[in-house]
Write a structure and sequence with these properties.
The protein is an all-alpha fold and about 400 residues long. It has two domains: about 5-120; about 140-385, no CATH class. The protein is about 70% helix and about 0% strand. The chain contains 15 helices and two strands. A two-stranded parallel ribbon has the order 1-2. Helix 6 crosses helix 13 (about 310-325) and helix 12 packs across helix 14. The chain starts with a helix and ends in a 10-residue tail after the last strand. The relative contact order is 0.11.
Amino acid sequence: MFDINEIRKRAQAASDAASRQLNESMEKSRKITEQMQEDMEAAQAAREAGQQQDAEQAAAQQRQVEILGQMFSPDVMAQMAATEEMIQKAVDEKVAEAAALGVEGMMNQFFGDDTALVAAALETLAMEEEDEEDPELDQALEEELYRILEEKLAQIDRLPEPEPIVYPKGDPRWEQFGILLSGIISHLNDHRLDGMDVEKHIPVMEQQIASLVRRSWGISGRGELLDTIRYLTKEGYVLRCRLYGEASSPEALMEESDDEEACASVCRGWRFAQWYKLRFGPEFLVGWDVGRAAMLARWGCFLGWITEGEALGILWELSQKAAEELHSWREFAESYLLGGMMWKLLFGDSSAESYLGFLADAATDLLTGKGDGGQWRGCPWPAPRKIGFQPRG
């Protein structure tokens, strides 16, 4: 069941976050205006006292010009104010409607195609940190998280799924498959999955996505985006898990400069890799790396940092990598849960329980068709292409 108070709380928090940037800009403008006023008053007082020299007057005038140059134009301020008002109005309306509609109506209202703006305000990327303080991740909680992860993996393993099918090299379904590799993050953020664009191209959504990528990944442009995608494709958590799994002890992975927190992180990562290396192996985490890289490619295309052709090329390579290492959407989802668990452990984040729940629920919707989901079910996993028998000469 949905808790309307929780939704209201998250809606308000999202609205507050959207307006903080405006408030900071307005505060900056206020300080600049106050400084300009002080300069003008000082200049006036000096003139009245007959103490202002021509050079000082010129300097004061130049100062005023510089200050005015730093201020936002009226058009910009009006646009920012209108954006905040639009977000707040939309959030208030949707929360009121949700309270009156009940659970089923609320699902349709929040996840419909016409509520992308509100969805972006309510549901920021799952990777972002929560404002509330979580309990410390100690040994007992770590063991409990392993138990929860096993439950979620079993939940995914029971999901129905169409049999894989062979996609010829030029099959247009490869493009759809590449887009759907971003399915879990897209689902959590109510992004579109019917094409390359994650949202409608309106200024407020472009600002939301740019802010999301910058805060969550530290990416502000093309170069950083491509570097991160390259890292996820060539190294990522597959390499990290391999190194941790091959180490004889966590101490073998530590450096002299590591502090206590860094050493604790290494120990948690080492225990994770040792626990699962015989069951899955490091290559199984390719879904975690590929899924995030696919999402970054789509975000980058939406923001204009890469062209659509470049994004499609990246998704093609990611698709081949995923299809080579994994054999179903279920395996892809399980890979994503394992990678998400390791990520949370390395950073000592005790919110892993709720995070794993979000991931498992998203995968379930993508495979069973709940709500507006079922996109994975409609695009079977690519089966390996059969190669005819070639006799040795």
